[in-house]
Amino acid sequence: MSHEIQVTFDCGDPAALARFWADALGYQIQEPPPGFDSWDAALAAMGIPPERRNDASALIDPEGRGPRIFFQRVPEGKAAKNRVHLDVRAAPGLTGDERMAALEESCARLAELGATRIARYEPAPPLQAGHIVCTDPEGNEFCLD
Hints:
The protein has three helices and eight strands, in the order E-H-E-H-E-E-E-H-E-E-E. The protein has two domains: 6-73, Signal recognition particle alu RNA binding heterodimer, srp9/1 (2-Layer Sandwich); 86-144, no CATH class. The chain is α/β, with parallel strands linked by helices. The longest helix has 17 residues, at 96-112.
């Protein structure tokens, strides 16, 4: 029996990090419960005080293929390199210079949204197709692959 997965990020600002990853992945912020026009209205109806309304946020794949991504506020900041990270498949099926150009284009777009470029790894066939390592606005590493 297989199970669905959810990817969870501990972070300081769930709403902001969710917006970044929604743009990065082509995901969308999960809609509020039925009967509510916004999450703020839903959380107010649930009795959640205003200072706690950014404790969590979630993204869903609009095509229903990818996992749900959940962001939860934690008091501590990021302290070390991620042991697990996302690979954003920004150039599937491309090779060589065409692949690296597509990765560079994606990197530039994400930098405008708050990502930081860390390193570029050139193709080294047959095993390495080339990739770019970045961090999101809170310092979580990810690869453009």
